[in-house]
Amino acid sequence: MNLIEGLEFKNADPAKVVSHLCGLDRKNIITAPELLEVDYNGGEVSLRVTNGKDNLYPLRKSFMYKILNWYHFQRELIPKLTMKTIVCIANDFIRNIKSREVNVKIENGEALTITSQNYTEFSDLMVIDLVKEYGIESISRNDFFLRLYVKKVREIEPIKGEVFAFGFNIFNSETGFRALNAIPYLLRYSCSNGALINETGASKAMCHFGYKSIEMKEYLTTIFQKTEQSISNISGDIQELSKRRAKEFTRKLIPSLDRMMFRTEREVLLKKLNDDSTGYDLFNMITSYAKNFEIGKQLYLEQLAGKLLTMLN
Q1: Global pTM?
Q2: Is 209 strand, coil or helix?
Q3: 123 vs 146: CA distance, rounded Å
Q4: What is the Cα–Cα distance from 121 to 198, expressed in whole angstroms?
Q5: Of 123, 211, 231, 313, whose CB has the highest number of CB atoms within 10 Å?
Q6: What's the helix, strand, coil split of the chain in %, to 5?
Q7: Beta carbons within 8 Å of 218's beta carbon, 6+ residues apart
Q8: Facing residues of 233 across strands?
Q9: DSSP sequence for 42-111
Q10: What pLDDT, in 10s, does the model give residues 89-110?
């Protein structure tokens, strides 16, 4: 599906991202959903807003995906459909929205996303401002999510000669695709591979409904304190992973890998392992492979690598 997308940042300097965000031209349109229609003439896809007068806004990919997500449409089906079919589905979904009014966010003259009136805005600039006291190393961001790499809390050496930086990633989404969340992050120094450890029991997300900014700050402070307590557990899990065979885990990972790559690509990737490869080898292979992709797929694979540590029990 070829739709326009906003600028993507990958491990960018925080000042550069902040400057970009401050320079965006944004406005919100509050309107009834029946006054919205996705328009497709065989070329550009636009959003038609009939709110006193007709206005056409070029449609971003994030807006289309948000509409499809509204009724849990499976993303895996999108590549199998024509744009004409996707537009018809999107318009049917818009007509079935039950809210009296919705918010349409326009960014630089383009339709960025659509949210309900119950949606609470946590802007990326607000999140960056709250987190900056902890030290932000770099930022990845696109139309779908924000990812802040917070400076390391400490170093760990679970395996002799294998040093990791333990820190946090903070996630947010202005378009409704992610909750505010703080997740432990491991960076392997020797090759700069990273993994997200999301199953520690300390990283419950804060959804964009019914919270105030002061509660966001309290949430982040609490989550940092709780998550730091999991460092010793993660170190022990990496040690255990290095003692187990990779083949114990590969079959469990295949369905998840097949969601983001062709079967032949997955087979080529896993053939790099041999009978003596350990779970830790698999962990490093996935995190290394993740660096080849745009930030969405990179995130998916780094989360998948982190899940290996939850498969030990």
Answers
A1: 0.91
A2: coil
A3: 10
A4: 24
A5: 231
A6: 40, 30, 30
A7: none
A8: none
A9: SS-EEEEEESSSEEEEEBBHHHHHHHHHHTT--GGGGGGS-HHHHHHHHHHHHHT---S-EEEEEETTEE
A10: 999 999 999 989 999 999 999 9
